[in-house]
Design a protein that fits this description.
By secondary structure, this protein is of the alpha/beta class. Helix content is about 35%, strand content about 15%. The protein is globular, with a radius of gyration of 20 Å. The two termini are about 40 Å apart. About 45% of the residues are buried.
């Protein structure tokens, strides 16, 4: 694996650093050596993430990393999903310093560093690369939907959310790991930049794909996965949520991806869609969201609860209520694991 450090710009403990969080939880593409975050200098990145040390130190700057570490990474990854997908002006200095030390930059923002004159000049002078993984692929490489997906017999389960940044990708990875431990040959299809960084075998960047081709690309990666990897089970990483007005998403996976099963991730501590509190746009009740998914012809197999904004007593109460009312397993993935959901998946696969 290539060696990399991750830059989080003082946001390691925040949801904005979800790309970094995903990499800390596991990646088959990179060996993560360190996180660069001045607000948490001297700590272990795992301790900041979930209280469990990972042996990945946090340094205050690129300069401090190279001063104190004997490791020599090849890449610096932008580990934060900044609002609007734009790199803040005060981040430039650290990334340019990384390039001065011979590191190529991997960026998943809508701000393409490879088109930024200052970064272009530095990359040329330092003989390093600027890798913008959110850049749209050339149109000739994209696909329209054909209907071939309807011939796929491998079970496809979409991991959906009731909002953005609730833990869809993390829950999908946990499910994949447990399924594999039970002997179920499982592939997870990534649809975001972090999934690519984590090194999954199949996928595409959903929000870097022109809308005309999204359905076709969903179909393409599933067909490719079936043909190349021949899995027993396919998990589809969801994006946003079905009713988030700033970027509704999910029907593509249920319809174009023909996902007949779904796992829903929900944050009971949120009342409003993220960043839309001032507009008063409320997240629908989870029972309504489950009904909507079922109206698309897909079965909700289980629910994962995001723990932010609630104490354990509140979470357990919500867990019991949903499980009893909907008669499906409900878990706290970070606390309980996902074994009960995988039990439901195995039942679903055998039907």
């Amino acid at each position: 694996m290539d060696k990399a450090i991750v830059f989080t710009h003082n946001l390691l403990a925040e949801n904005f650093a979800k790309t970094c969080h995903g990499l800390l939880r596991g990646t088959e593409r990179f060996e993560i050596l360190s996180v660069i975050d001045a607000a948490h200098e001297g700590k272990d990145a795992g301790t900041i993430l979930n209280g469990s040390p990972l042996g990945i130190p946090v340094y205050s700057s690129i300069a401090q990393f190279f001063k104190h570490s004997n490791e020599r990474p090849e890449f610096c990854i932008v580990g934060v999903a900044f609002p609007g997908g734009v790199l803040p002006e005060d981040c430039r200095k650290e990334l340019l310093a990384a390039m001065d030390h011979g590191l190529s930059i991997i960026c998943g923002l809508h701000h393409y560093l490879s088109e930024d004159p200052e970064f272009q000049s530095s990359a040329k002078n330092n003989k390093v690369k600027l890798i913008d993984i959110r850049k749209p692929r050339p149109v000739p490489e994209l696909h329209f939907w054909t209907g071939e997906i309807l011939e796929v017999t491998t079970p496809v389960i979409a991991i959906l959310g009731s909002d953005c940044a609730v833990g869809k990708r993390t829950t999908a990875r946990f499910i994949m790991e447990v399924c594999r431990s039970r002997g179920i040959k499982t592939e997870m299809i990534y649809t975001g930049q972090t999934g690519w960084m984590q090194g999954y075998n199949h996928g595409f960047i959903f929000d870097a794909t022109p809308n005309d081709f999204v359905s076709g690309e969903v179909e393409r990666v599933i067909l490719e996965c079936v043909d190349v990897s021949k899995p027993d089970l396919i998990l589809l990483e969801g994006q946003s949520s079905l009713r988030n007005p700033s970027g509704p998403c999910g029907s593509e996976f249920l319809l174009s991806g023909n996902a007949k099963g779904a796992v829903l991730v929900h944050s009971p501590g949120r009342k409003y869609f993220v960043d839309m509190e001032e507009l008063g746009l409320q997240i629908p009740e989870i029972e309504d969201e489950i009904e909507l998914i079922q109206n698309y012809g897909s079965k909700v197999i289980g629910v994962g609860l995001n723990e932010e904004g609630c104490d354990m007593g509140q979470l357990r109460s919500v867990q019991r209520t949903i499980s009893k009312k909907m008669n499906i397993p409900v878990v706290l993935p970070l606390t309980d694991g996902v074994n009960k959901i995988v039990d439901g998946i195995q039942t679903f696969m055998n039907q």
